[in-house]
Inverse folding.
């Protein structure tokens, strides 16, 4: 297992610039000379966002990043599926382990947020989601949503114009209103199911009452932009919330809960007449996980 | 069920002042004329922090708030145990449901953060923990830890001098370093147990590998100030993490996991020679939950 260094590298504050990948390597901010992800099974410590993957989306305070692998070194086009291995597995592991990822932007990236030349260390981000999709070249790519970790030392990149529309990602004025709206929808669904998990039926009971979580089927954030409505929410126990979000389980067209790897039926989704679920959202979830 | 209004009241931004409780009531910012908590079984929407309970601790960006009930109206002393009912149950429910709580400070509170006269709306806080303890007068009191929800509209109260020593509560320069240290301890414990829950033995498997959570036995934040070391951490599945933190289960001196209400043995804590657990921390957890 590689020795990982998570977090800031002393001596290289946010905004530090580097002429080239060698200097970035020597500083220890991003050690590989070519790979966009520094990571493996045990976690990922840094990424370079430089426009190498056409599917990358950079919104400053959040980044939808494409995993690596499957590219033809000459044409730079995707010629094979990407796997959840090496750096891709590392980014997913850093999500689960809560470790921060150093983000470096290069001159080839999104103009609004990238340096004009060379490379710039832009601070620590947290991986908040991962899934797969079919990329522009017709092959499966893994995607990772990263969100800046704000600290007074590290001013966030400027938010995009329409950031307020898509999710609680930056220091945007509407965050409280959205929070309130979102908890109302979430809690209405939990009450429709009396805090019972729709996958396993468990009702977690505590001295302060029942506990359940509201899981958005199609996530609210970029690039999914799922709606915050009851038909896009499931009432789940925390364990099944983790498994659903990580794509370990999915719901098929007949309402069976299935294991993503074996496709074995694990249970039937528990439904109630009061709560209508939009099948298109379940299909979206299957498309990116199953 | 009372009609609840969570979040900011339009027309009353952070810093709005009120001469007395009647004006606060009329504004809808905190509706009860006497009670410190506006809430019930279904949630709590606002509290007043005004020094009425000697056990209250106000650190600006975080508050350790005492529940209500059990006080003699004349002597103002605690003469009976508090129960997890009415507003106390409401604060716990707002924690579970993720609803924000309006915080109003009155002139009788902690000098550094309270208005000189009258009452002041100080913004939205989130309930992050609840537990019970024996208060200064010898009776059980319920306690709630609230942490400010920061937004650009709502500057946080100034942090206390030693805030940097106790937890990730404000916008303090060391937050990232602490984050990194904390994840290292947490992840070391998860690996010692191979991501297997020490209560139920489940190993949540996802396409990206195993998932587990690190639960601090004695919480890191105020007022517990538990240490961030492996002997104060359990490896739990998310469900048992919720139940342990909410005090629905506890670990007895023989290592049995028991239901807090019935004291029934649910399982034996799964241990490994590599991971030494400090029995004093388990005792602390029992004291405040069992």
């Amino acid at each position: 297992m590689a020795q990982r260094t998570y977090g800031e590298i002393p001596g290289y504050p946010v905004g530090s610039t580097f002429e080239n990948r060698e200097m970035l390597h020597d500083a220890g901010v991003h050690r590989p000379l070519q790979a966009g992800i520094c990571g493996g099974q045990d976690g990922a410590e840094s990424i370079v966002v430089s426009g190498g993957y056409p599917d990358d989306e950079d919104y400053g305070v959040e980044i939808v990043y494409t995993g690596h692998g499957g590219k033809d070194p000459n044409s730079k086009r995707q010629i094979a599926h990407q796997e959840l291995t090496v750096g891709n597995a590392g980014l997913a592991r850093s999500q689960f382990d809560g470790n921060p990822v150093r983000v470096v932007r290069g001159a080839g990236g999104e103009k609004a947020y990238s340096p004009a030349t060379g490379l710039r260390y832009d601070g620590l981000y947290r991986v908040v989601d991962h899934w797969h999709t079919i990329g522009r070249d017709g092959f499966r790519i893994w995607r990772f949503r990263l969100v800046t970790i704000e600290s007074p030392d590290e001013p966030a990149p400027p938010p995009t114009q329409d950031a307020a529309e898509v999710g609680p990602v930056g220091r945007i004025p509407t965050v409280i209103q959205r929070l309130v709206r979102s908890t109302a929808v979430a809690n209405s669904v939990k009450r429709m199911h009396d805090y019972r998990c729709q996958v396993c039926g468990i009702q977690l009971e505590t001295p302060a009452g029942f506990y359940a979580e509201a899981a958005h089927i199609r996530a609210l954030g970029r690039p999914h932009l799922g709606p915050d409505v009851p038909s896009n929410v499931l009432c789940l126990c925390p364990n099944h919330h983790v498994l659903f979000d990580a794509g370990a389980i999915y719901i098929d067209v007949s309402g069976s809960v299935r294991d993503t790897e074996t496709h074995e039926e694990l249970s039937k989704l528990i439904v109630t007449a009061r709560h209508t679920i939009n099948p298109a959202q379940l299909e979206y979830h299957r498309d990116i996980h199953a």
User: Anything to note?
Assistant: Residues 152-180 of chain A have pLDDT under 50 and may be disordered. Chain A touches chain B through 55 residues (CB under 8 Å). Residues 95 and 260 of chain A are 19 Å apart (CA to CA).
